[in-house]
Specification:
Number of strands of chain B: 6
Helix content of chain A: 25-40%
Distance between the termini of chain B: 29 Å
Oligomer: heterodimer
Number of helices of chain A: 9
Strand content of chain B: 5-15%
Strand order of the largest sheet of chain A: 6-7-8-3-9-10
Structural class of chain B: alpha/beta
Helix content of chain B: 55-70%
Number of helices of chain B: 19
Strand content of chain A: 25-35%
Radius of gyration of chain B: 28 Å
Largest interface: A-B, 26 and 15 residues
Chain lengths: 241, 426
């Protein structure tokens, strides 16, 4: 299997505070990889850096062999990022937003149509897409944003807390969308606090605490290594170390 | 405490933030500083005004008349009838007016006839203080008229025409702008210039402030609406994002400028029942002779200066907008820009710019919008080099600040930088 993402000895500082320290991991093609950890552990910082939003001091990050530090714009063509607290332009309709975002990625009108059609199919908002984003509920906005993030079928979809703040039904729908991304040929890097969600979605995980990866591997390996009945128990044991 | 007062206290506390207090205090300080400067400039007007008298009449009466004005006027007397030489000399000594007493001046008055005095008012700027100085120069002739009138009454020359006794001096007014001269009253020209240029600084001031708020809000609202991170992750260079925001706001600002100018013209027209924007043929012709009418190229110069002034403001506001965490903080972060706009706005409106100290002049020149405010009067005075240099400076300033904005957008600072007015908790 080819490597989609390679992170080697990556450090990120905010002034004198080290947010991420010596982090390394890889994501294979069509793999869902989760970065989990307590609040302030450095998950979002790592995701934002891989999404080219933040710079980093040391280490190497490459996506499909493209060096993030040297060619960030090329990397942006390969990835798509959904921030934890993302919003959409409220003056646009749902379909207007998808159309606008598709225009920024598409090389021609056929590409654009393909992206919008795919997003329309995934989000499941139907006729509501004609309404202004300002009238959407949190769940509708999140589904719109997820469909935006994956409509271009990026090599790597970076999803920060994709179901954060959603009700049970909406969260389940979003999880199903993410689960189906592998079949669409995409790899996913996600972060979440919801261990059940991680167990359901992720092929492999890395547990991060105080900016350092304290364990990584398949969920069954982590559970057995820590003699835990479930991922939550393993996480609590590791986080207390 | 009464529940109403608890609510009232909360409302006042929420409104009286540092973001609101700081602009208020800075504006007050600025008004006080400009007020002081204008006061100082006005005192200069109180000093004896320099005038040049061309004395072609050899009568002792004329010399005596001129000497009576010594307290208010610093007169230099020349006996050369060449008006061109007189204008050159007036420019050398900084005289605001030339008064020519003709050969037969005393004789005509002695015969009970009105005497003509040719007056040339030299316009070097069109500010409030500048027009005050011209008005003061005009008083010279009014003083002479009164002296002669009093003399005629004291001589009991009752055979003379009462109109002549009341107004024995006939003024032949001329206006000089640069190397051009036209026979017209200075008041008419001042009125014409004011009418043509009043809108520009007011509109420019409003547009710069509104455009700055627009672009700063556009950046901060991306943060507030959580769309900035998505925007930064799309495959488009950060410079293009900055340029799109700047040019978008620039276009809207230009449209706004056009709409406001038309609206303001209608407003002035309505207020004055159409008189303020209509010009008599005589004044229009004189303004044409003096080169005070804008040609197509003049409008291009003016438009260029306004456009680059707005772009300079936008580039600064873009950077300031990055400091605003949300749209509420925008007012606070653009305060420095508002102060920078108010300084040239007030100074060009109120003060004779040429009389400022060199240090103050260069400080004002360093503010890019000053050149937009100074463009119209300088175009009137055909000082194109100054206008072009100003546009060049604005363009370079704009490029530098766009580069800085692009750099900030390319770093973490666009996400992490913010202006924090809150007190540090111990």
């Amino acid at each position: 299997m080819s490597k989609i993402l390679e992170v080697k000895n990556f450090y990120k500082n905010y002034g004198s505070f080290t947010a991420v320290s010596n982090v390394s991991f890889e994501i294979e093609d069509k793999e869902i990889f989760a970065l989990i950890g307590p609040n302030g552990a450095g998950k979002s910082t790592a995701l934002k850096t891989i999404a080219t939003i933040l710079s980093f001091e040391r280490g190497n990050i490459s996506i499909c062999g493209v060096d993030l530090k040297k060619e960030p714009e090329k990397v942006r063509d390969l990835i798509s990022y959904l921030p934890e607290e993302a919003g959409a332009y409220k003056n646009l309709t749902g379909i207007g937003y998808l159309d606008f975002m598709a225009s920024l990625y598409a090389k021609n009108s056929a590409d654009k149509k393909r992206y919008v059609d795919f997003a329309r199919e995934i989000c499941g908002l139907g006729g509501k897409l004609k309404d202004k984003v300002s009238t959407y509920s949190k769940g509708m906005t999140r589904k719109l944003l997820i469909s935006r993030a994956i409509m271009t079928r990026p090599k790597l979809a970076i999803l920060d807390e994709p179901t954060s703040g959603l009700d049970v039904v909406n969260a389940m729908e979003v999880r199903n969308i993410i689960k189906g991304l592998k079949d669409e040929g995409m790899s996913v890097l996600l972060s979440s606090h919801n261990m059940l969600e991680i167990e359901y979605l992720a092929d492999r995980i890395a547990i991060i605490n105080h900016g350092k990866i304290i364990d990584s591997g398949t969920i069954s390996k982590i559970k057995s290594d820590n003699n835990a009945r479930n991922l939550e128990e393993a996480f609590v044991k590791l986080a207390k170390l | 405490m009464n529940k109403f007062f608890i609510l009232l206290k909360k409302e006042v506390k929420e409104l009286l933030t540092m973001q609101m207090i700081l602009p208020m205090v800075l504006t007050m300080v600025l008004f006080a500083a400009v007020g002081g400067l204008v006061g100082k400039e006005s005192k200069k007007v109180e000093k004896p005004t320099k005038i040049l008298v061309v004395q072609l009449d050899d009568g002792a009466f004329t010399n005596e008349l001129i000497s009576t004005t010594k307290a208010s006027f610093d007169s230099e007397i020349t006996y050369d009838a060449d008006i061109d030489k007189a204008i050159t000399r007036a420019n050398e000594i900084g005289s605001l007016a030339i008064f020519i007493f003709p050969e037969n001046f005393s004789q005509k008055l002695a015969e009970g006839q009105p005497a003509q005095v040719e007056s040339y008012y030299i316009f070097r700027n069109f500010s409030l203080v500048g027009s005050q100085k011209i008005t003061k120069a005009k008083i010279f002739l009014a003083g002479i008229n009164e002296q002669v009138s009093n003399y005629l009454i004291s001589q009991k020359t009752l055979s003379a025409d009462p109109t002549v006794i009341k107004n024995p001096i006939m003024a032949g007014d001329h206006v000089v702008v640069g190397e051009k001269t036209a026979a017209i009253s200075p008041d008419a020209i001042l009125g014409f210039v004011t009418q043509q240029t009043t809108f520009i600084p007011i509109i420019l001031f409003i547009i710069i402030i509104m455009a700055a708020q627009m672009i700063a809000t556009s950046v901060s609202s991306e943060k507030e609406n959580k769309t900035l991170e998505t925007l930064l992750s799309i495959p488009i260079s950060r410079q293009k994002i900055v340029a799109a925001k700047l040019i978008g706001a620039g276009i809207v600002a230009l449209v706004m400028a056009g709409v406001y100018m038309v609206g303001f013209r209608y407003y002035i027209d309505g207020m004055s029942a159409g008189q303020a924007t209509t010009v008599s043929t005589e004044v229009a012709q004189a303004a044409g002779v003096l080169g005070l009418k804008f040609a197509v190229t003049d409008y291009l110069f003016l438009g260029g200066s306004l456009f680059f002034g707005i772009l300079s403001a936008l580039s600064i506001a873009m950077i300031l907008g990055i400091f605003a965490e949300d749209t509420k903080a925008v007012q606070g972060v653009i305060t420095p820009l508002m102060i920078l706009v108010m300084i040239p706005y007030l100074l060009t409106l109120l003060v004779d710019f040429n009389s400022l100290s060199p240090t103050l002049k260069y400080i004002v020149y360093a503010i890019p919008f000053s050149h937009s405010f100074l463009a119209a009067p300088n175009i009137f005075l055909k000082n194109y080099q100054f206008v072009l240099a100003g546009i060049g400076y604005q363009f370079v300033f704009f490029l530098v600040f766009v580069y800085i904005a692009g750099k900030i957008f390319s770093t973490d600072k666009v996400m992490t930088i913010k202006l924090n007015f809150s007190k540090k908790k111990s």
